[in-house]
């Protein structure tokens, strides 16, 4: 059982809610995924607009825990203020903390991330930090009060899968008891299965589902991959070898 | 006085944040969050949060996110 700040999720698949062709397709995808969490965000709203309320109504009907994010924030102050606003709007102290440091790759600014995580944790937030797979950064985030880590697989929306397998494996091995979620860069279900086979506790997917030709079917495919990967991890996979080893016993083999 | 709301200039008479939302026609029962000059202002403090000329107000609502 994996607990995220004391909460066991119904599924190890976390799903983003952005970029779907329609609200109906989003709802369908969340249901088919059996998502354990859905991520949400905040944006400016004009007077008289009901867009935000309509979206919130849709999310509440799905009855899935929400994880608000601080997407688009580039400074500690922006991220902290956005988190505080999100806590009031969504009624949760969970926050997926994003502090972007580089625009082309949307790579997290690990220095600002640690500082923002410290401020938010002291303010009572439960922080899910979107981070690189940096071991030292992970240590600092844990020291800042984070009890969950969310390393990227690859740049957001790239669909490239797990770019640094060695780094992700090392991170998992260094902090075996910390719940960890691979967030960002996953493109197809096999990437998600691979993350779960490495021992990650969950994956967070958005673009790979939302931009699929059939988002609901892809959501289901991801759910199956996450379950398969988790089962494989628990079943303890064999070790890789560089040379062949016959699987059919050679004892008793005829000499012809 | 001139207030910048979500990056748009407004000439308003409201002296505090709650009055500003009312003057601009926001539904205060809706799920919105507010910040002034980069700092969060909780819903319960809007009526006592005075505005100054040139204040930068952000009014945010739920939306899709990854």
UniProtKB/TrEMBL annotation, chain A:
A Pfam family hit: ThiG
SUPFAM superfamilies assigned: ThiG-like
A single BP term in Gene Ontology: thiamine diphosphate biosynthetic process
Thiazole synthase ThiG domain mapped to chain residues: 5-249
Keywords (A to Z) from UniProt: Cytoplasm, Schiff base, Thiamine biosynthesis, Transferase
Cellular compartments annotated: Cytoplasm
EC number: 2.8.1.10
Binding partners and assembly: Homotetramer. Forms heterodimers with either ThiH or ThiS.
Function of the protein: Catalyzes the rearrangement of 1-deoxy-D-xylulose 5-phosphate (DXP) to produce the thiazole phosphate moiety of thiamine. Sulfur is provided by the thiocarboxylate moiety of the carrier protein ThiS. In vitro, sulfur can be provided by H(2)S.
HAMAP family to which the protein is assigned, alphabetical: ThiG
Similarity-based family: Belongs to the ThiG family.
Official protein name in the record: Thiazole synthase
Naturally occurring in which organism (per UniProt): Komagataeibacter oboediens
Automatic annotation (TrEMBL), chain B:
Domain of life: Bacteria
InterPro entries reported for this sequence: Beta-grasp_dom_sf, Mopterin_synth/thiamin_S_b, Thi_S, ThiS/MoaD-like
Record-given protein name: Sulfur carrier protein ThiS
């Amino acid at each position: 059982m994996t607990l995220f700040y004391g909460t066991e999720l119904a599924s190890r698949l976390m799903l983003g809610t952005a970029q779907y062709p329609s609200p109906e397709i989003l709802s369908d995808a969340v249901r088919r995924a059996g998502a354990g969490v859905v991520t949400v965000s905040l944006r400016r709203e004009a007077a008289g607009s009901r867009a935000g309320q309509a979206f919130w109504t849709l999310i509440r009907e799905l009855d899935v825990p929400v994880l608000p994010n601080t997407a688009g924030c580039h400074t500690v102050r922006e991220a902290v203020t956005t988190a505080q606003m999100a806590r009031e709007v969504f009624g949760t102290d969970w926050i997926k903390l994003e502090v972007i440091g580089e625009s082309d790759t949307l790579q997290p600014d690990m220095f600002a991330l640690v500082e923002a995580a410290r401020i938010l944790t002291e303010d009572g937030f439960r922080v899910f930090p979107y981070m690189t797979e940096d071991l030292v950064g992970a240590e600092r985030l844990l020291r800042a009060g984070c009890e969950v880590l969310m390393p990227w697989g690859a740049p957001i929306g790239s669909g490239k899968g797990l770019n640094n397998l060695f780094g992700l494996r090392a991170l998992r091995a260094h902090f075996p008891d910390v719940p960890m979620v691979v967030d960002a860069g996953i493109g197809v279900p096999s990437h998600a299965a691979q993350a779960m086979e490495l021992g990650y506790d969950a994956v967070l997917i958005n673009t790979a589902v939302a931009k699929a030709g059939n988002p609901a079917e892809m959501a289901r495919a991801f759910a199956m991959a996450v379950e398969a990967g988790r089962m494989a991890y628990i079943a303890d996979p064999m070790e890789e070898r560089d040379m062949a080893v016959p699987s059919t016993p050679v004892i008793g083999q005829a000499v012809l | 006085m001139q207030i910048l709301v979500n990056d748009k200039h407004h000439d308003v008479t409201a002296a505090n944040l709650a009055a500003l939302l009312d003057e601009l026609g926001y539904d205060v029962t809706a799920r919105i969050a507010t910040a002034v000059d980069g700092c969060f202002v909780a819903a319960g403090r809007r009526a006592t949060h005075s505005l100054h000329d040139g204040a930068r107000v952000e009014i945010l609502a739920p939306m899709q996110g990854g």
